[in-house]
Input
Amino acid sequence: MTESFYNNIAALKERDEIAISHRPAHSSSTDLNGWIMEHLAPRTSDNVLDIGTGSGKQALLLARTVKHPGYILSIDRSYEALYRLSQNSLEAGLETRIRFLHIPLDELDGHLRRADYDRAVSSRVLSHLRQPRTVFHALALALKPGGLFFFYGPSRKNNAEIKRFSARLQGDFSAQESQEPTFIEGAGVQGARDVFSQVAIVKFEQTLRLASPEMLYACWSASSLYDETLDRPFRQAALRHFESHTVFETTQRIIGIKATR
Output
């Protein structure tokens, strides 16, 4: 089972559409992006590193806060992701606030100006790094004294409910969430402690209330749990679940690391 629960940007969008209601925990913010911005706390004149641009949503949110002379430097190995962000920033009138660096993250060392950035933010992309400690060291050098690197990712208990539901279809009725730590719980937090002077751990939870068999199937089929051989059994199990339940609840469990230079 892969660490990232959702396979791609389209799947993440589908997840957002499925989330007809949610109950956040461990934070006063009511959504994941609000929680991220709360802990990153960008200021209007900050220079911010956006590590692994992905859909570009966070870069656009940051660009609405950060103004000249501050800027966002969005970094991604995908030219398509950066191009899409460029187009979206033009449409939003934010193009002067975002700069771009097209490079694999493992090659980041030597490509950032030292002590030039106030904030850095990243997500699940860090779990794909071959040399996370080298990248963490490069980010620490790029941050000003007191600068903050906030990164986050799924805990091993992320979406445990739908993982167990899926596992039972394979005859593993005792299946629990993986006992192995995810990147964020293992190499991520340890790498931050090796490089940064202060490290704090924060958590976010958001419960999805899936109101029909179709929504449960859509959530599962959009995830990395999807198994073509289980497609029909999963549909049938979803129908059986809703014969006696009005909803299926699964909880997104995210861990954030606040690493201070």
Q: What stands out?
A: Residues 1-28 have pLDDT under 50 and may be disordered.
